Structures are given as C-alpha cells and as structure tokens.
Amino acid sequence: SEVESNTITFNAAISACERVGEWLQALQLVSSMVTSKVECDVITVSAVISACEKNGKWERALELFSAGAKGRLKLDRIAFSAAISACEKGSQWKQALHVFGMIAQSNLETDVLAFNAAISAFEKDDEWQNALQFVVLMAQNNMESNAITCNSAISACGKGG
Questions:
Q1: What is the pLDDT of residues 18-50, one digit of tens each?
Q2: Whole-angstrom Cα distance, residue 46 to residue 71?
Q3: Residue 39, C-beta contacts closer than 8 angstroms, at least 6 positions apart
Q4: Mean pLDDT in residue range 119-139
Q5: Count of helices and strands (H, E) across the chain
Q6: Which residues of 120-147 are buried (b: 16+ CB within 10 A; e: fewer)?
Q7: Angle value at C-alpha 28, between 24 and 33, nearest 5 degrees
Q8: Half-sphere exposure of residue 77, counting CA atoms within 13 Å on the CB side?
Q9: Is the separation of the CB atoms in 129 and 141 below 8 Å?
Q10: What is d(CA 99, CA 115) in angstroms, rounded to the nearest whole number?
C-alpha cells in the first residue's frame, strides 16, 4: 500500500532529518512539499529551522523563519527559539535580539528557551551587558533561570573583563 504524501508525513520526515543532522534533506523535503502543493505549517517551518540551526546554517534558518513569518504562518515559540539559537550559533547577537523582539509582536509569551538562546548569543559575542540585562528581564517576568542561563551569563561576564 502507498502512503499518502501530506503535511503530517512530510513533517515526520523533516523532523527525522532534523534529529540526524540532515539539514539539506530537510530543505529538499520542503521543496517537494511546495512542488506537490502540500501545505507547510508551523511544524514544518519549526523543524526545518531547527535542522538548519543545529548544523550551523544560521543564514538559511533566518531565511526560512522570515519566509514563514511573511507567509502569514503563526509561528510558535519553538520556531522563535530555533531562529534565536541559529543566530547564536552564527555569532549574530543583533539578529538574535531582533528575533527575540518579534516574539512580543506575535503575542507569544517568551519562555526560558528563548531567553537562554538570546543570552547565549550575547555570550558568544562578548555582549555581557546585554546578557545581564536579559537575566534581569527574566527575573522581572517571574521566569526561573536554569543552569544554562547562569552558565551563559557568567561566561559572558568572564569574557567582558
């Protein structure tokens, strides 16, 4: 019997590619979705952004994030966090800050993953003041920090002299 190609089956395949580091295959699957007129949803976009992010393809991840936002998809916190993480991996703290700012514009609540990704981006680029500002912002939002938050902030301060 033949499996019907639909959004769910494509998303499962893209998520599998993400888990095993096959970012290019994930992109090819998205291309096949478009060609086959299968609808891309927020899960599709989040999975392919994550696949690119995990393989250091920050520019591609941001392109996909922007395309998802312009395509009027309601992006979720996973997509935002993956895009911020991609910026972090590419040492693009200004881009990370921009994406973080878009979370509020999308009427989503920020979560510890998004904060940690931004703080890590600041840490990578020696932006210790921004890292500390985000730790304070987390506290102001009654959000609990975790080991990743603390380690990134401490590392950022250590690099800042």
A1: 999 999 999 999 999 989 999 888 899 999 999
A2: 14
A3: 7, 33
A4: 94
A5: 9, 0
A6: bbbbbbbbbebbbebbeebeeeebebee
A7: 145
A8: 12
A9: no
A10: 11
Q: Backbone dihedral region of 56: left (phi > 0), alpha (psi from -120 to 50 degrees) or beta?
A: left
* Residue 67 burial (C-beta neighbours within 10 Å; 0-12, 13-18, 19+): middle
* Closest to 73 (Cα-Cα) out of 118, 42, 47: 42
109: confidence class by pLDDT, cuts 50, 70, 90: confident
- Whose tokens are 């393989």? That residue is 55
- Number of CB atoms found within 10 A of residue 158's CB: 11
Integer Cα distance of 51 and 24 in angstroms: 8
Tell me the C-alpha distance between 7 and 38, whole Å: 6
